[in-house]
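I am writing to request your help with a piece of structural work I have in hand. The matter concerns a single protein, recorded as an amino acid sequence and a row of C-alpha cells. Could you please explain, in whatever detail you think fit, how the C-alpha cells follow from the sequence? Thank you for your consideration; the sequence and its C-alpha cells are set out here:
>
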Amino acid sequence: MSPLWNRARFRVHLGASMLAACEVRGHGRRRVLARKTLLPFAAGGRAAALQALREWIALGRGASIEWVLGPSDVRYLLLPWSHALADLSLREAVACALFEQRFREEASAHAVRFAKARYGQPQLAAFVARPLIADITAHAREARLRLRSIAPGMAVVWARFGSVLTRERGVVHLVDGDRQLAVRHERGQPLDVALRPFDEASDASALDAPCEPGVRRCFSCCMPADGAAFPAHGLKLDDGQGFDATADMAYAFALCGVF
C-alpha cells in the first residue's frame, strides 16, 4: 500500500457537549472510516474530553487532524456590501465593531475569518475565541499531530454542498445537538444567519415543512426521533466504507467533505 493509504487523518467535530472523532484512511474515492468515537463532556469539561481524545489517538506521528467547530463556538455575522471594505484593515475594523455591538463581547479576544467576497453581496464573517484556538493548537502539538485546519461548521457544509445550494434559494438549517443555525440564502449566498435553540420534539417536523419562497434544507448530526424519516430535502453525505449516512449521523459534521 502507498504511504498515503497508511497515513491517518483525524477529523473532529466540536459540539456543545461532545467531541465526534473519526480516523480516516486512504485518499480520493478510496477513503475508509477506520475508527470513530464519541466523547461527551459536561459544562467546563472540555479539557478532559481533549485528554480522552489524545488517549484515543495515541501517538499521532505522521498523522494530521482537522477540526470542525459547531455553532456553540463560532459567532457569525454578515457585513453589508461596500466598496470601502475592499480595504482589508477597514473590513476587519468594521467587522469587529459590529461583533461587539451584537454579541457584547471583546472582538480582540476572537480570531475572525471571512468568506470569499462577492461583488454586491454581504460578506460572512466567523469569530472564534482565541483561547479555544490555543487549546486546539496545544492539543495537536501534544498529540504529535499536524494541525491542518480549524473550520466553522457552516463553512464546511457550504463547501461540501455548494453545487446544490448555488442552484437554489431558501433556508438551510444546520442542526447540532440542541442548537441550529438557520441560514437564509440566495443561490448559495447567505442573506442572514440566526442561531436558535433546537428542540427535537417540537422543531423536527418543521424542517420538512415548505419554505416560501425557495427550498428548505437541513444538515444534521442528530438522529430523527422515533424512527422518523430524514427530512425530504435533507443534505446527506454519501455512504462510504465504514460510514453509513443514516446510522452514523453523529459524525456528519466531522466527515463533511470526506464522504
